[in-house]
Amino acid sequence: MRITMVGTGYVGLVSGACFSDFGHEVICVDKDPSKIALLENGVMPIFEPGLEQLVARNVQAGRLSFTTDIAAGVTNAEAVFIGVGTPTRRGDGHADLSYVFAAAQEIAAALEAQSVGASDLLLVTKSTVPVGTGDEVERIVRQAAPNRVIRVASNPEFLREGAAIEDFKRPDRVVCGTDDGIARGMLSQVYRPLSLNQSAPVLFTGRRTAELIKYAANAFLATKISFINEIADLCEATGADVQEVSRGIGLDNRIGRKFLHAGPGYGGSCFPKDTLALLKTAEDYQSPLRIVEAVVAVNDSRKRAMGRKVIAAMGGEARGKVVTILGLTFKPNTDDMRDSPAIAIIQALQDAGATIRACDPEGMQQAAKMLTDVAFVEDPYEAVTDADVVVIVTEWDAYRALDLSRMAKTMRTLLMVDLRNVYAMDEVNSAGLTYVGIGKRDSALSTH
Ligand code: UGA
């Protein structure tokens, strides 16, 4: 099928590249000429494992190309996917849909300008959009292209940064929202490679339902995280161990083991933004989501509380202390710093008078734009020299097997605060360092 993807962010670029890998002919469109220039030179504008090779392979096979010209991009397309950003609208928490609506308008105007007799088009929103957005997109394209048949469907994306290609090609499910029979048939064709080897069920729903499934999924996952984070606090207060609690409940299939890792709170470009947007929808429809409200509040307060936890571990005083932060991105295998817990943690520590050194395998460039007075150091061993505490904020593989004895030789105070429970207390202790984890028996140093 001839597919055009509008937007080359995480969702747009990964989806476009994967569609071409399925054998479709794909054109990716982006307004930003510098992004398109990079892509045409085989350079990825985002860090995502495996993406560069995937793009190169499909460009070489002649199935994947890039352009800044939306009109040229949609001219021969059978299906156009909108994969542009839907950031939080400044000031009110609603999703900012201006990029989605602008894309719909431009696509329809380009089609309308084409010769009469051109074929129908399937227009699909892949961006995360609040329930009812498809109705508005439909209104926009009807108005801008009254002489063309454009079927509007919703196909939310569930991929995770850092595991995006694997998630796209081996998803738990694909959700397609449309009541139109022809649109359903076309979407079945798009995802045929997945249904052929029965690797993923394709779930057909109404358009509004599909839009809501995306938000409900992210809100539920965020709920699991805030839930286990509060249980971690209770573990510290009561002398239980959150990793064992997590395993103990997660082995119940009705609960499941995933997304029950206690940590410094969720971040990234999705959970924080999507939970807020969902709350706005709930408000608009006067149908409160009190659980999601609590999830957001718990997460917001947790990030700075982690800063206080580090200070408590240092005996309650941060002034004059050197804190080494290992991991800045909101999770490993990405360079994305958006809403990363590291930002609030570092600010809380700086406010209390600490000096910050930080390491991250991919995120230091982005982090430097958001943080001030932080010394960025490539090598973790160099970063801990004369430090009073080493704090693990992001569980990069590079920080999972550190030579702790080597660190102990150069640190000023032998203390590790492990906000991801990467290390076992015994191994850290045997290297001579005091260990403070999350929700651990002996880590009941107060966060409150
Ligand atoms: C999330 C969802 O997992 C994807 O399914 C969805 O497609 C995506 O949002 C989106 O809407 O685009 P992502 O933000 O890339 O994906 O990252 P996750 O792996 O879900 O992690 C989000 C945050 O939760 C991270 O800060 C991570 O450290 C934290 N987390 C995750 C925990 O603290 N504990 C866990 O057990 C799991």
CATH superfamily of the largest domain: NAD(P)-binding Rossmann-like Domain
Q: N-to-C terminal Cα separation, in Å?
A: 56 Å
Give the helix tally: 18
According to CATH, what is the class of the largest domain?
Answer: Alpha Beta
Query: In which order are the strands of the major sheet placed?
Result: 3-2-1-4-5-6
Brief sketch in words of this structure:
This protein has 448 residues and is an alpha/beta fold. It contains 18 helices and 14 strands.
Compile the SSE list and pairings.
Blueprint lengths: L1 E5 L3 H12 L3 E5 L3 H8 L10 H10 L3 E4 L2 H5 L4 E4 L15 H15 L8 E5 L7 H12 L5 E5 L9 H6 L4 E4 L3 H10 L1 H5 L5 E4 L1 H32 L3 H9 L20 H14 L5 H24 L8 E5 L14 H11 L3 E5 L4 H7 L3 E3 L3 H4 L5 E4 L11 H7 L4 E4 L6 H6 L3 E3 L12
Parallel strand pairs: 1-2, 1-4, 2-3, 4-5, 5-6, 7-8, 9-10, 9-12, 10-11, 12-13, 13-14
This protein binds uridine-5'-diphosphate-glucuronic acid.
Q: Would you write up a description of this structure?
A:
- By secondary structure, this protein is of the alpha/beta class.
- It folds into two domains: 2-205, NAD(P)-binding Rossmann-like Domain (Rossmann fold), CATH 3.40.50.720; 220-436, Rossmann fold (3-Layer(aba) Sandwich).
- It contains 18 helices and 14 strands.
- The strands form three sheets. The protein has a six-stranded parallel sheet, with helices on both faces. Strands 11-10-9-12-13-14 form a six-stranded parallel sheet.
- Helix 15 (364-370) links the parallel strand 10 (355-359) and strand 11.
- The relative contact order is 0.09.
- The model is unreliable at 444-448 (pLDDT under 50).
- The structure holds uridine-5'-diphosphate-glucuronic acid.
